[in-house]
Amino acid sequence: MTTKGSCMCGDVEYQFTGEPAMKALCHCIDCQKWTGGAFTSNAVVPRTSFQVNKGSPKAYDITGDSGKINKHFFCSNCGSSLYTELEIMPDMTVIKAGGLDGGAASLGNAIGAELYVKDRVSYLQSIDGAKQEQKM
């Protein structure tokens, strides 16, 4: 199975093969700032199954709570958040689900974990059945 995605303007297109290793929401302050929203929804896939097919995303590095680098990739034209590579997860790519095509942004309505719930905004409730992690 191949899942495709893109930025809002279409300058960057990407894809991954297979099923995500994890489907997670992240409520950390970094994700809130990066997206301008209350959290990110993420498909975590092996880096070997992920590829950029069109365009050249820009990257912004920030140091996470772990002291390791979180490399955020985005479209330099429209600013869409695309994916993240975390030094603490060197074999995985964290794809921002909102850019996935064909309704895949829903992540199959199966969120396995919520990360940084200590930073979750007060008007959101936990997802039933999802593992609740105070941090990563």
Structure notes:
The chain is mainly beta. The protein has one domain: Metal Binding Protein, Guanine Nucleotide Exchange Factor, Chain A, CATH 2.170.150. The protein contains one helix and eleven strands. The strands form two sheets. The protein has an eight-stranded mixed β-sheet with strand order 6-7-8-9-4-3-10-11. Strands 1-2-5 form a three-stranded antiparallel β-sheet, with no helix packed on it. A hairpin with a 5-residue loop joins β8 and β9 (92-96). The longest helix has 7 residues, at 29-35. It is globular, with a radius of gyration of 14 Å. The model has no long low-confidence stretch (mean pLDDT 96).
Helix content: under 10%
Spatial gap, N to C terminus:
28 Å
- What name does the CATH topology carry? Metal Binding Protein, Guanine Nucleotide Exchange Factor, Chain A
What sequence of helices (H) and strands (E) makes up the elements? Answer: EEEHEEEEEEEE
Largest sheet: 8 strands, mixed
| CATH architecture call | Beta Complex
**Outline type:** globular
The total tally of domains equals 1
Domain CENP-V/GFA: 3-117
Family: Belongs to the Gfa family.
Keywords: Lyase, Metal-binding, Zinc
Protein name: CENP-V/GFA domain-containing protein
